[in-house]
Specification:
mainly alpha
Protein backbone atom coordinates (compact mmCIF):
# COMPACT_ATOMS: atom_id res chain seq x y z
CA UNK A 1 0.00 0.00 0.00
CA UNK A 2 2.87 2.40 0.80
CA UNK A 3 4.37 1.85 -2.67
CA UNK A 4 1.14 2.91 -4.37
CA UNK A 5 0.92 6.00 -2.17
CA UNK A 6 4.54 6.97 -2.90
CA UNK A 7 4.01 6.41 -6.62
CA UNK A 8 0.84 8.54 -6.63
CA UNK A 9 2.66 11.30 -4.74
CA UNK A 10 5.51 11.24 -7.27
CA UNK A 11 3.05 11.36 -10.18
CA UNK A 12 1.28 14.38 -8.66
CA UNK A 13 4.64 16.13 -8.17
CA UNK A 14 5.60 15.54 -11.80
CA UNK A 15 2.22 16.88 -12.97
CA UNK A 16 2.51 19.95 -10.73
CA UNK A 17 5.99 20.73 -12.07
CA UNK A 18 4.95 20.41 -15.73
CA UNK A 19 3.75 24.06 -16.17
CA UNK A 20 7.03 25.33 -14.69
CA UNK A 21 9.00 22.99 -16.92
CA UNK A 22 7.13 24.20 -20.01
CA UNK A 23 7.70 27.82 -19.00
CA UNK A 24 11.45 27.20 -19.08
CA UNK A 25 11.32 26.14 -22.75
CA UNK A 26 12.65 28.52 -25.39
CA UNK A 27 9.89 30.79 -26.68
CA UNK A 28 7.59 30.30 -23.69
CA UNK A 29 6.77 33.12 -21.24
CA UNK A 30 9.44 35.39 -22.73
CA UNK A 31 7.89 38.61 -21.28
CA UNK A 32 8.00 37.09 -17.79
CA UNK A 33 11.62 36.00 -18.27
CA UNK A 34 12.51 39.51 -19.51
CA UNK A 35 10.80 41.01 -16.46
CA UNK A 36 12.74 38.78 -14.07
CA UNK A 37 16.03 39.75 -15.69
CA UNK A 38 14.87 43.39 -15.68
CA UNK A 39 14.46 43.28 -11.90
CA UNK A 40 17.92 41.78 -11.58
CA UNK A 41 19.27 44.44 -13.97
CA UNK A 42 17.83 47.22 -11.83
CA UNK A 43 19.25 45.65 -8.68
CA UNK A 44 22.79 45.27 -10.01
CA UNK A 45 22.64 48.78 -11.51
CA UNK A 46 21.87 50.22 -8.07
CA UNK A 47 24.72 48.16 -6.59
CA UNK A 48 27.12 49.37 -9.30
CA UNK A 49 26.22 53.03 -8.75
CA UNK A 50 26.45 52.70 -4.98
CA UNK A 51 29.86 51.02 -5.09
CA UNK A 52 31.21 53.52 -7.62
CA UNK A 53 30.03 56.44 -5.49
CA UNK A 54 31.44 54.85 -2.33
CA UNK A 55 34.77 54.26 -4.09
CA UNK A 56 34.90 57.91 -5.20
CA UNK A 57 34.37 58.98 -1.58
CA UNK A 58 36.54 56.41 0.30
CA UNK A 59 38.97 55.04 -2.33
CA UNK A 60 38.88 51.52 -0.93
CA UNK A 61 39.98 48.86 -3.40
CA UNK A 62 37.14 46.43 -2.68
CA UNK A 63 34.61 49.13 -3.63
CA UNK A 64 36.29 49.60 -7.01
CA UNK A 65 36.29 45.84 -7.58
CA UNK A 66 32.61 45.67 -6.59
CA UNK A 67 31.75 48.54 -8.95
CA UNK A 68 33.47 46.77 -11.84
CA UNK A 69 31.86 43.41 -11.07
CA UNK A 70 28.40 44.97 -10.78
CA UNK A 71 29.04 46.97 -13.95
CA UNK A 72 29.75 43.75 -15.82
CA UNK A 73 26.60 42.26 -14.30
CA UNK A 74 24.60 45.22 -15.68
CA UNK A 75 25.90 44.48 -19.17
CA UNK A 76 25.21 40.74 -18.71
CA UNK A 77 21.63 41.22 -17.50
CA UNK A 78 20.90 43.80 -20.23
CA UNK A 79 21.91 41.17 -22.78
CA UNK A 80 19.47 38.70 -21.18
CA UNK A 81 16.63 41.22 -21.17
CA UNK A 82 17.20 42.05 -24.84
CA UNK A 83 17.40 38.34 -25.73
CA UNK A 84 14.03 37.67 -24.13
CA UNK A 85 12.40 40.78 -25.62
CA UNK A 86 13.51 39.84 -29.12
CA UNK A 87 12.07 36.36 -28.58
CA UNK A 88 8.66 37.77 -27.60
CA UNK A 89 5.99 36.98 -30.19
CA UNK A 90 4.57 40.03 -31.95
CA UNK A 91 1.64 40.79 -34.21
CA UNK A 92 3.93 40.55 -37.26
CA UNK A 93 5.19 37.11 -36.25
CA UNK A 94 8.85 38.12 -36.63
CA UNK A 95 9.71 38.20 -32.93
CA UNK A 96 10.44 41.92 -33.20
CA UNK A 97 8.10 44.59 -31.83
CA UNK A 98 5.61 45.79 -34.42
CA UNK A 99 5.62 49.50 -35.32
CA UNK A 100 2.80 51.68 -34.01
CA UNK A 101 -0.11 52.15 -36.41
CA UNK A 102 -0.22 55.34 -38.46
CA UNK A 103 -3.48 57.23 -38.06
CA UNK A 104 -5.04 59.03 -41.02
CA UNK A 105 -4.69 62.43 -39.29
CA UNK A 106 -0.99 61.81 -38.59
CA UNK A 107 -0.26 61.07 -42.25
CA UNK A 108 -1.54 64.49 -43.41
CA UNK A 109 0.06 66.43 -40.55
CA UNK A 110 3.56 66.20 -42.05
Amino acid sequence: MAMNSARACKDRAVEAFQPVSEMLDVGECEPLKAAVHGVILATVAVCAVYNAAAWLKRRQRHLAVNAVVYGIAVWWERAHVMHHLVACPSATGTGLPSPPPVLADDAHAA
